[in-house]
Amino acid sequence: DTLKPWKLLDSREIFLVPGRITVSSQAIELANGERYEPYYRVGLSDQAWMIAQTDDDRIICQTQYKHGPQKISLTLPGGIVDPGEEPLETAQRELLEETGYVCQDWKHLGSFCRNNNQYCGEEHFFWGTGAKWTQDPDPTTNLEEIHTLLLAREEVSNALANGDAPVLGHFAGLLMALQQMSR
Known about the structure:
Blueprint: E1 7-17, E2 21-29, E3 35-44, E4 47-54, E5 59-66, E6 71-75, E7 78-80, H1 87-99, E8 101-102, E9 105-115, E10 119-133, E11 147-151, H2 153-161, H3 168-181
Helix pairs in contact: 2-3
């Protein structure tokens, strides 16, 4: 195998919003030995998403306005991994806060970087089963108005086909839901 990783020679932050975004200008050595700069790397906070299934085989989804695509979007419960928090803890906390549900069993489905060149942080996906409603969702004060939905497999599939999940992380998570439900 002739593929080699690049070498990081130097990196400096050129933009920073603590706990949210970092943009670095890097000098790298390519596999062929050539130096390349500036190469920009973007760091965003990691996020954890939960794909939660109820005992009657429905997936807990949400609709909410997402300013990236500037439209009402089908999403999964989840959010930013807080400093010192494990992604699973985030997934469990966000599921309870946003929907009032808890899951009895959890499985890690994978962690993926958001952008193959600039990085942009990681998204962590968890599959939860035995989801039960335990409390009213906590009121949110962080720019979120969320409506919770319980969707059957066919409804999730139709929503994806209709373009109702325009954010890649949520789209991927919902595809994972369909995969898990078919097992």
